[in-house]
Predict the structure.
Amino acid sequence: MFDIAGAAVEGALAAGARYADARVMFMRTESVAVRNGVVERLVQNESAGVGVRALIGSSWGFHATRELADAAARRAGEQAAAIAKASASVPGPALELASSDPVEAHWESTWEVHPLDGVTLAEKTDLLVGVTSTINAAGVPIADAGHSVWDTEKWFASSEGHRISQRIVECGALMSATAIGDGETQR
């Protein structure tokens, strides 16, 4: 993925940018919502893309594409530079970026069992159905449960030589019970 980010940066520089950076991102998500033992929403999604920033004079340009290929990334870099060039037609104060030594680094969150790969969708959904059924069996008329998972990978490259990647895996769950009686509602 650094190759794709690098192609975007090269495209912007070739089109006249004095600085450029690019971020490639790939994200998988999953979300399930259950009410009273019935699955009401189940969404699994994957998305990817590359975004490029280019600096010409004192003006920034930005462009993004969903296409993860070197040629498409290069075109996105060229387009970001074209937008910066158009913005530079209205001059602003000189802009100097702080200098920094190039950084190469990687960071990722830790997990014992990956929530998307290590636990099946059926297992997670069965747990949500089970908890709402248990709440209903206790005499509570409205029971909700759900979970969401995000697995995000990012790669950053800049014209100054930075190469930074990260992977963040997050998940969360909820359950609620809504009791109605004696003229009031409690959640």
